[in-house]
Each structure stands twice: as structure tokens, then as C-alpha cells.
Amino acid sequence: MLRHCYSKIFTLRLTLLLTYGVEKMISKILLAVNSVAREPIEEQIVKSSIIQALSKWLLTLRNRHFLIIDTIVFAIAPILALAIRLDDSFSLAPYLGGLIQVTILFVPLKLTVLYAFGFYKRYWRYASIDELEQIVMLMAAIGILQTTCFNVVYYLDDFLVNSLPRSLPLLDTIISFLFVGGIRFSIPVLNRIKQRHLKFYRRDRVLIVGAGSAGISLVREMQQSPWLGFYPVAFIDDDQAKLNLQIRRIPVVGDRHKIPEIVRSLHIRRVIIAMPSVPGRVIREILDICLSVGVPTSTLPGLNEILTNRIRVGSVRDIQIEDLLRRESIQTDLRRVGEFIQGKKVLISGAGGSIGSELCRQVLKCRPAEIMLLGHGENSLFAIQQELARNLQILQQEGDPGDTIPEIKTFIGDIRFFTRLEYLFEQFRPQVIFHAAAHKHVPLMESHPPEAIANNVRGTKNLLDLALKYGVEHFVTISTDKAVNPTSIMGASKRVAEMLVLQAAQKSGKPFMVVRFGNVLGSRGSVVPTFKQQIAQGGPITITHPDICRYFMTIPEAVQLLLQAATIGRGGEVFMLDMGEPVKIVDLAKDMIRLSGYEVGKDIEIAFTGLRPGEKLFEELFIPGEEYERTQHEKIIKVKNASRILPEQLDLKIEAICEAAIKNDNHLIVFLLEQLVPEYMPDYLNAEVEATPVNSTTNPEQPNPQPLLQRVALG
User: Fold this and answer.
1) Over the stretch 499-546, which tens digit does the pLDDT of each residue have?
2) Is there a domain that residue 539 lies in?
């Protein structure tokens, strides 16, 4: 009789624990949170200490601890399931043998499934809906397997499970799910509650412009990490469907035109633009609004910069000139690019340069078998090698066990030295080459023609000769819009390099191609770093001519299109990247002065110095005789007849100009370039350009360069 009473009491306790325990715990947590404001400060401090202690203890748990906890939970889950099923008629003794057999069957099955699917490799502090989805799917699979195994052994004479209810596997799965999920999700819940008690951090009131995924990710990290000093107050979004809604307890209060009113009414200390995919004109408009009310404004990098990286508070930075010139995000076929690179041996010349280093970053993400970094500058090469090594660690953590792990190699050498390059090819045997090594500074090359020829022409020929000898599958060289109707030694030398690539494509029948684009923002020798330095020194900003215009792209954007063009090419093509609208350099300088917090003409002056040797007012995109057509990518144009307009006896002329470079015969170099590149107009012939007045203003009759796609559409 006494034993029966004890059994009834035990059954009642287990039932109450399962049915009401979790609900009571959640209710207590909610009551504690809601009553914090009404409690005396002493009680708040005590409660905060308890929560912090509990949260700290949970955060010390590692996956090996969770494995032990799960084993215990899975061992008692069948008992709890049986207690619920039988309710008050539960007695352990008649079912003991069956429970032992079921426990022996279920526990290893659960642990095996969870371990096989990486359940014990999760970091639960930042558990989200993704982790909850995984728990639900794994537990559903476990439920099916448990039910199947239970029904199989149910009818076997050697097992005692036929004494147990048929619903036991399902109830066991539900109980396991509640405990496993409840324990793990208590960590982020308690962490959130703990953060609400941390009121002593000084935090700026922040207005987030953009209630999309980027803005929400930003707010989530601000809420989870108050020590960063940001307190999100409200969202701004142009989507009327989101107006007056709350996202993570943060209201959407209006569109961009409401910013001045919201800044004043909510005492906003900082505005963060969280719209990485919008074009630069939108960023410019929002910036102008924020500057009108004098509130500091920051932004997230553009989508082309962040790529697949996670949005976080550390990504927030001051608005840069690249943001104002940003265009609509590029639709890159990442799958096709990945298939092109994955498992290949890739050689990148000029790997330490601005374009070359970005190529290295993006190629690494495509998981080549090996990536060889070729350059002659040891410091720059070492810097990108170290960066790639860090990126490789992240790639290993995020990837699957069967993914290719790229091997990173470096080779210090100069492309002008054939024997040194041949040693590299013999050892490395590259399959894909991206040729980004070149001299590109126009005025300097105008003063040193032999160097331009030695590097841009002889260096390219060396790489091509070895590529043909060692059976390289793909060769992509980077050219410039200055190679189009060139007026400079640099531009003419790059045009000759294009010819060499096209000739090699004819000889080999392989996809050897040229990708031509304009100025890249932030690259070495570009105007942006120069302007930044001049602004830091107090000015003035020096510009050669008030009417000078250039096409600009960001480095990540240029490299993405370069990789996309490489997948399109079949051999012997010249691809041109759509550079968008040309930008007046004087407008660029004015924007940079404003972004630095100064006023044009008051704090920083702009001075005009006159066109430099070899410099043009407007860069061109079309060579006489070239025919253009669209490709499957909207931002890439192909020159259809590039390989059919090569000069005769190209090899002999190349050898002659290289000999002239060895002899340092500048006049002969210019003469031979005129023979090789008929459209080349040396500086001494470009008198009309040189005669342009330095202090002239924009002439409305001056032909305005058109965007590339528009020119192609016209004809």
C-alpha cells in the first residue's frame, strides 16, 4: 500500500514537472522583466546579479557539457513519457525491463543523429531561428527513426517493449525536443535579459536608415552588445508597408524626408545608413539631409565590398567618396565564377597591387586548388599573403568538410625577367592566369618610356610565351580605357599588350582575353588617396583642369566584373566594363572636402595646375574599327572583331621596341609605338589639347562622353 502511494506521488511530480515547469519558468522570467521598473533599486540589483550569474554559468557550458546533459535528458525522457501516457495509473515496476531496453535503443540513436549533423558544433549564445529550425528538423527525423525502430522490436519475442504504449516514441521525442531546445535557447534569452540591466554604459541614440536585413542585423548586434556605445531608437524606411511597425521593439517612424524632424524630436546623436545595395545618388540625398541638421552620419559598406561577410557594428564607417559614386549592385553569377575557379591552379601577377590584392581575395573564396601570388614588392606581397591566411581560416570554419582548402603560395619576381618566370611556371604549372602587373602612372611613364615598354609590353609577352609553352588554360589580362586612342606612353604600351594577348589567343585557340576598364577608386596613384592627403595637409587640392572627366569604378566592383568576363570569354575577345556616367574630377574633389567636414573655398581651396604630359580631358572607350555587342551580362560589352585588327609582323615590331627600351632610346620608342598603334597621338602632336586654357570653365558645346551601354545602343 505504501509502495503504491509512493508511486502515485512520483507520477504526479513528474507530470507536474513536464506540464507546468517550463511554462512557470517562462512566466517568472517575463514577470521579472516586466516588474523591473516597479521594483526598488536594491531588488533590481539583486535580481540583475542573479541573472548575470546564471547567464555567466550558462555561457561557460561547452558542447561537451551539452552532450552530457543531453545524455541525462534522453535517459529520463522515456520515464517521463510513460508517466504522462499512463497518468495516475503509473507504476514503474511492470515496465522497468521495457524502459531499460527502450532507453538503450533511443539514447545512442539520438546522440548519433545529432552528432552526425553537427549539432554539437554550434555556438548557442547567438542562437536564432536557424538553430531552432535545425532542432525541429533533427527531432522530427529522430521521432521517425524511434517510431520505426520501436515498431520493429515491438513484435519480437526477445524484447520487452511490447509492454509499453505505442505512443511512447512520439512522447519521448516531444519531451526531448522541449528540454534540448529549452536549455539551449535559455542562453540567448538570459543574455538578452542581462543586457537590459546594463544601464551604466554611455550609449549614443542612433537612427537607422533602412529597415531591411542589413539594418535589422545591425540593431540586433547593438542590442546584444551595449558596450559598443550604440542605442538604436528608431528606423527610417521608404517602404510605406513598414511604417508604424516595430522590428525588434524598434519603431519605423517615417521615410528619409522625416529625418530632420525625427532627429530633433528623439534627440538622435548619430545616423547610420544601413542600405548596402542602394546607388550612390540615394546615399548622397540622405547625407545632404543629415548634414542640414548637423547630425554625424555613418554607413555600411556597399554590397560589392561586404560580399558574403556578416553585417556587424564593426562594419560601420564614415561615408566615403566610394559610397556617393556607388551604383546599383552588380548581379554576378557566383555559381559560374565558382565553377570556373574551383580546384584550379591560379596565378595572379601584380598580386600586391590594389586590383591584384582584391583579385586574390575574391579568387580565394572560389576555392582554387592553389593560388600563386606573383609580385616584385615584398612588403605588399607579404601583406596580402597574411590577409589571405586569415581569410583562409574563416573559409575553413564556414565550409563543409569535403570542400577544397586552397593552398596559398608566394613568388617574388619581376615579369620582365623571363628565366625567373620560367622557373615559376616549371614549379607551379598554373592553369589560370590573371595578369594585373603593370606600370599605370601616366606622367611618370611619359618621362620613362623604357620602363613602360619593359614592364607593360615585355613583361606581358614573357607571361604569354610561358603560358603557351606550359599549356595554360585561361589567360586574362587587365587593360585600361587609356589604351583607347592613347595620347600617353602608358596607354599605348597597354594597347600593345592587348595586341599580344589577342595574338596568343589566335595561336593557341584558347580563352586568352582582355578586360578593359577605367579608373578604380582608391587604387594606388589614383586621385582619391592624393586628395585625402592634400585635405589632411590643409589643402589646396590640385586638379589639372576644371573640365577634366574620368570614368570610375570601385575595386570590388571591377574585380567582380573581371571574373564574370573571364567566364564569358572564349578566346580573342576584348571585354569592356560599363563604367556608368563620367565624373568631373572637380566635383569629386568638392565631395571629398564636404565628407571631411570642411567647406570648399573657405577651409580647403581647389587649384588648377594644367594638363600633365600625356593626359586627356576625356577618356574614350572606342577604337576606330572595333565592333561592339552586348553579352549575357548587362554590365559587360564585347569587341567582336578584336582579333581581326592586329598589325602585320607584330612579333618583329615588338622585338624592335623592346630593343629600343633596352637602349633607352625614347624617340625610337615613340616612333615604333606610332607604327604599332595607328590611333596613338603622342604628346608633341596633341597641341590642341595642350593649348586648352587652364582657367577655362565648362564649355556647353564641349562633347560630353556618353555611358558605354548608351553608345553601344546608338550604334
Assistant:
1) 999 999 988 889 999 998 877 776 666 777 888 888 888 889 998 888
2) no
Residue 697 has pLDDT above 80, yes or no: no
Q: Work out the burial of residue 394: count CB atoms within 10 Å of its CB; fewer than 13 is exposed, 13-18 middle, 19 or more buried.
A: exposed
Task: Tell me: do 394 and 518 sit in the same domain.
Answer: yes
Q: Are residues 185 and 294 in the same domain?
A: no
pLDDT at residue 267 is higher than 80: yes
Residue 329 lies in a domain: no
| 581 shares its domain with 453 | yes
Choose the weakest-confidence range: 471-480, 583-592, 640-649, 692-701: 692-701
Decide if 106 contacts 78 (C-beta within 8 A): yes
Q: Are residues 521 and 626 part of one domain?
A: yes
Q: Verify that 173 and 104 share a domain, yes or no.
A: yes
Contact indicator for 237, 211 with CB cutoff of 8 Å: yes
Kindly report the CATH number assigned to the domain that includes residue 644. Answer: 3.40.50.720
The count of domains in the chain is: 3
> Of 197, 212, 241, which residue sits at a domain end?
197
Note whether 709 and 578 are within 8 A (CB). yes
Angle at 447 (CA atoms; ends 443, 453), nearest 5 degrees:
95
Q: Which residues of 55-70 are buried (b: 16+ CB within 10 A; e: fewer)?
A: beebeeeeeeebeeeb
Q: Is 8 a catalytic residue?
A: no
At residue 162's C-alpha, the angle toward residues 161 and 168, to 5°, is: 65
Q: How far apart are CA 98 and CA 658, in angstroms?
A: 89
Last residue of one domain, picked from the residues 293, 324, 355: 324
Residues 374 and 299 in one domain: no
All three cell numbers of 642, joined, read 578584336
Domain encompassing residue 283: 204-324
For 430-475, write each residue's pLDDT tens digit.
Answer: 999 999 999 988 889 999 999 999 999 999 999 999 999 999 999 9
Q: Among residues 110, 482, 494, 616, which one is catalytic?
A: 482
CA distance 352 to 349: 8
Residue 712: band (very low, low, confident or very high) from pLDDT cuts 50, 70, 90: very low
Omega cis (within 30) before 540: yes
Contact 351, 373 (CB under 8 A): yes
Angle between helices 555-568 and 334-341 (to 10 degrees): 70
Look at residue 8 and tell me whether its pLDDT is greater than 70. Answer: no
Our measurement of the distance from residue 604's CA atom to the centroid of its chain's CA atoms, rounded to an integer in Å, reads 34
Shared domain check, 411 and 378? yes
Q: Are residues 12 and 136 in the same domain?
A: yes
Residue 605 lies in a domain: no
Taking residues 557-577, report their average pLDDT.
Answer: 86
What H or E segment, with its residue span, contains residue 656?
Answer: helix 650-662
**Contact (CB, 8 A) for 435 and 463:** yes
The structure's pTM equals 0.62
